Amino acid sequence: MPELDRSYLRKMEIHGAAKGWVAPLDRSDRAYLSHFRSVCKRYNIEPSKASKLEYEFVIKVTENEFYLHQAQG
């Protein structure tokens, strides 16, 4: 590996260690998660304890409602 690539990777490692590796959520992500939580609450489902069927149901309902609401503006 060329030295330039190693230097770049070292800088990225230092940056990632200091700032964190996950990008912050944007406005749309936060809105989706908020809606997901409201759907879970509506159907009394805890995502961490949900069966696969329950989890898939909540995801589908969330996606359908969230993206329909976005399309309607």
Describe the structure.
This protein is 74% helix and 0% strand. It is mostly helical. Helix 2 crosses helix 3. The longest helix is centred in the C-terminal third of the chain and has 21 residues, at 52-72. The mean pLDDT is 90.
Q: What amount of the residues lies in strands?
A: under 5%
**Separation of the first and last Cα atoms:** 49 Å
Specify the biggest β-sheet: none
The SS-based structural class is mainly alpha
* Coarse shape: elongated
Mean pLDDT across all amino acids: 90
Radius of gyration: 19 Å
Tally of alpha and pi helices: 3
Order of helices and strands: HHH
- Report the count of strand segments: 0
Which percent range fits the helix content?
Answer: over 70%
Low-confidence runs: none
Outline of this structure?
This protein has 73 residues and is mainly α. The chain contains 3 helices and no strands.
Please give the structural blueprint.
Elements: H1 3-19, H2 27-42, H3 52-72
Helix pairs in contact: 2-3
List keywords for this structure.
73 residues; mainly alpha; 3 helices; 0% strand
